[in-house]
Structure formats: C-alpha cells, structure tokens
Amino acid sequence: MQKGNGFGRLVMVGVLGAAVAMAAGCGQQQLEERNAALQKQLEQSMGQNADLQAQVDGIKAQNEALAADLEKARAKGLVPAPAPAAAPKAKPDFGEGVEVSMAGDTMTLTLPETILFASGSVDLKPESKRVLDKVADILNKDYATARIRVEGHTDDQPIVKSKKLWSDNWDLSCNRAMAVVRYLVTKKVDPKRIYAAGLSYYKPIAPNTTVAGRAKNRRVAIVVSP
Question: Are 220 and 175 in contact, with CB atoms under 8 Å apart?
C-alpha cells in the first residue's frame, strides 16, 4: 500500500508540473503575441507620423514658393504693397487738469470738481467752459460717431450746506452730469449720442477716508466709446 501511495504521489507531482509548464508556456506565448501587436501599432504610428511630416513639409514648401512669387509680383508692380499698420491713436490733449485714460477703444476723460463746479453747486464755473469748449471741439472732430456717457460722481459725505437744493448725492451727481451734457449739446455735440448718468459715491477712484481721496472722487467722467 505504501508503494502504491508513493506512486500516486509521483503521478500527481508530474501532472502538476506539466500543468505549471503549460501555464508558463501559454503566458509566454500571450506576452509574445501582445508585444508583437504593440510593435505593429508602433510601426503604423511611425508610418503615419512620417506621412504627416511629409505633408507639413510639402505645405511649408508651397507657402515659401507662394511667398517668393508674391514678392516677385510686388517687385514688378503687379501687386500693391501691403498698407502699413495704423499707428495707435494718441491721447488727445484736453488741457491742464483733465486726465485721459484709454481702455481698448474706450476713452475716459476725468474732470475734477474744482475745474467745473463750486462745492454743492451744479452751475458751471466760467473757466470750466473753456475746458468743455475744447472737449466738444475734439469730440466733434475726432469722435464724431462715438457714444458719450457723462457720469457724475461724488464723495460719500452727506449733503449738508446745500441740502435744500439736493436730496442726496444721487441727486447732486445726476444734476452735475446733466449740466455738462447740456453745455456740450450747445457746442454742437449730437444729443442723440450723449447722455447723463449719476453714480453718487458708488464708484470711487480713491478712498473716502481722507480729504484728498474725497476730493478725487468728486468728479465728472466723460466716457467715449465706439
């Protein structure tokens, strides 16, 4: 019986060994097949890349040939030379005290309160009209089709001295903007392209915590856009 059991164990070991060998052989074959497939894909990709590079080189050569033909045609006067790029528009000079800023095609003129009005007033100072005359002249000549928004701005201090005239800073800012609009219209700025906006103290350009900051915020801005 013991000899029989030993033989059985030998048979079992042999079968297991054969199974392991077969499994190892199958695994090796699968790896080889996978590697072969990947190698084929790589070769195909390299071939496609080579074709694309050849196309790019061909297009580049065509462009260079066309550019050379164009230069020859221009040299013979058959094709006009390209127009020079337009120089950026220079900031107009509106006079001392008027700040000009550009954002793309939009121009903003900032006129401080001291140029235009007395404190709490919406009556234009006599000297302010000389400034606005120049503004109107440039707007009519160089910006004849532009839209114009005239913004009134204040500081954040409640109205005290002129409270009988203006209910609040909204009221004051709107009336100041309208005073400037009305004057520019008398100088032939088309009323169809200009309007007034009162922004009170909600669009400051400086802190309202100092005297200097509040003075900067009391202003009229003329926004000129295409």
Answer: no
Answer yes or no: are the C-beta atoms of 77 and 184 closer than 8 Å: no
Structure tokens at 47: 């071939």
- Length of the chain measured in residues: 226
Tokens for 99, please give them: 């700040």
The 3-state DSSP composition of the chain as helix, strand, coil percent (nearest 5) reads: 55, 15, 30
- pLDDT per residue as tens, the chain (226 positions): 455 555 555 555 555 565 555 656 666 777 778 778 878 887 887 778 778 788 878 888 888 887 787 777 777 777 777 766 555 567 788 888 899 999 999 999 999 999 999 999 999 999 999 999 999 999 999 999 999 999 999 999 999 888 899 999 999 999 999 999 999 999 999 999 999 999 999 999 999 999 999 999 999 999 999 8
Query: What are the E-state strand segments in the chain?
Result: 99-103, 106-112, 147-153, 194-198, 219-225
Maximum pairwise Cα distance, the chain = 132
Q: Model-level pTM?
A: 0.61
